[in-house]
Design a protein that fits this description.
alpha/beta, Metallo-beta-lactamase, Chain A, about 30% strand, globular
């Protein structure tokens, strides 16, 4: 499984022959100014919620690739009305089998609206179970006991957790979340993009080491294999 980071909470997963993109916020992100949005290939675009810093490039990438947007009913409907031809609406607790694996939508504690103020339904995270790896993409969320339900159903290989504080969990809460979902490997997200969520990289790495967790902070544009 290859993972490419495009900043904020945007990751492209290559799972077999399929490309799965999460929360594309690239063109407005000054830290990602070297990324050409039109070069990104995606078969599926999973959106955790409707805030601009998670959906800014979703329409363009979906139309460029004839990709399917997978999101809450309200968000899928909103993008459908903007001319995105392929959407799959979901809601919390539901799951869908897609060519790359099974996607289950799980709870996230966060507000949710679309860029024009339209109500976006419930904010969410995703658990993806594929033949290669099983992982949890938390989206924007506070620490919640609901996370403890995830390892009762899934055996996760790793989790992608927000660590920027202010709008989401901080690194301390993220390490508790890692224990809740029973993973030792965490990919950090939702940090550094704005002054509100700037972090001290060495400090968060120290917190992770003290928690006996492997914290991966990817460079924008970097690809890793897990």
């Amino acid at each position: 499984m290859k993972i490419t980071y495009y900043g904020q909470s945007c990751f492209l997963f290559e799972i077999g022959e399929h490309k799965v993109l999460f929360d594309p916020f690239i063109s407005p992100n000054q830290l990602a100014s070297h990324i050409d949005v039109n070069s990104i290939k995606a078969d599926y675009i999973l959106l955790s919620h409707g805030h601009t810093d998670h959906v800014a490039d979703a329409e363009q990438i979906a139309k460029n690739n004839n990709a399917t947007i997978v999101a809450s009913f309200e968000i899928a409907d909103w993008f459908g009305n903007k001319g995105v031809e392929k959407t799959h609406p979901m809601n919390i607790g539901g799951k869908v089998s897609l060519p790359f694996g099974t996607v289950k939508m799980v709870n996230a504690i966060h507000s949710n609206s679309l860029p024009d103020g339209t109500y976006g339904g419930a904010a969410a995270g995703f658990v993806v179970e594929s033949p290669e790896k099983t992982f949890y993409f938390a989206g924007d969320t506070a620490l919640t006991y609901d996370m403890k339900l995830i390892p009762e159903i899934f055996d996760l290989d790793f989790a992608l957790l927000p660590i920027g504080d202010n709008f989401t969990m901080d690194i301390q809460d993220a390490m508790i979340a890692a224990d809740f979902v029973q993973v030792d490997k965490v990919i950090g997200m939702h940090y550094d993009t704005f002054p509100y969520i700037e972090i001290d990289h060495e400090e968060v790495k120290d917190v992770a080491r003290m928690a006996d967790k492997e914290l991966i902070l990817m460079e924008i544009g970097q690809t890793i294999s897990l």
